[in-house]
Write a structure and sequence with these properties.
Blueprint (H helix, E strand, L loop, with lengths): L1 E7 L2 E7 L5 E4 L4 H4 L4 H8 L12 E2 L4 E3 L9 E5 L3 H6 L17 E5 L4 E2 L15 E2 L2 E7 L15 E8 L2 E2 H7 L3 H4 L5 E9 L9 E6 L2 E7 L7 H8 L10 E3 L21 E6 L3 E6 L2
Parallel strand pairs: 6-16, 8-13
Antiparallel strand pairs: 1-2, 1-5, 1-13, 2-3, 3-4, 6-7, 9-12, 10-11, 10-16, 11-13, 14-15, 14-17, 17-18
Length: about 290
Amino acid sequence: MRIATYIADGTRRVGLVSDDGLTIQPLDLTPQQAAVGALSIIESMAEGAAAPATTGIAVKIADVALDAPLPKPRRNLWCVGRNYHAHAKELSASVFKDSGAKTDEWPIVFTKVPECVVGPHDDVLVPSEVSTQIDYEAELAVVIGKGGKNITRDAAMDHVFGYTVVNDVTARDVQIRHGQWDMGKSFDTFCPMGPWIVTADQFDGTKTRVRCWVNGELRQDGPTENMIFDIPTLIETISRGITLYPGDVIATGTPAGVGMGMTPPRYLKAGDVVRVEIDRLGAIENKFV
């Protein structure tokens, strides 16, 4: 399934996207269920319920506004830093200089507040009064289905509901200033997400490709096979002593090619357009204003 959250006639709805990606069929949800997007579906299916039935008439995606599939995540998003070797190298003298020298020992894990999530085509606000070093990070995000604690690596993929695309927008100067990354990662609108969730039975997140363009220029291009810590390892690590819940999001890290890693650095400014695309999953595109 491809589950999308969208706005039609001023109302948030959730539906199934057609195979050709051109239409969306509404799902039979109450307004309260639709208010949290796909979350209510993920929670009910984790308890053993069937997917909700479709209802009404399919509408053209071009005639609605796609929202983030999880517009109101239940809590902070889990995020992974330094998960591609080339990215670890490009920021070794800046963001990662105080991190452990052994890149493959333990993942770096931080969070973003849920309020920073916006839709796949929404504007991203450039907080020029706070930061002058706004950067992009194209990432594959895992959406947890069945919850659990101390999940083993061997069982981890049984806990995956599906996948979506995120841009882990970052204020580099704030990130470095505070040492702990949450503040530089959590500004309003700093997590575009979408365009939908593709369920794990239709998409293999371990074998895909993450790309990012800025104003049409390809900046990032990395296969997920190049992750330092693969998806099962990330789920095992994050669930150590911590219960994961249905609908939790894990952003799995970004490939090389971020603006800070260039010489000289090339940060985002108002008017820039960033597109993040993951093969066989979908694309998001956001203007920075």
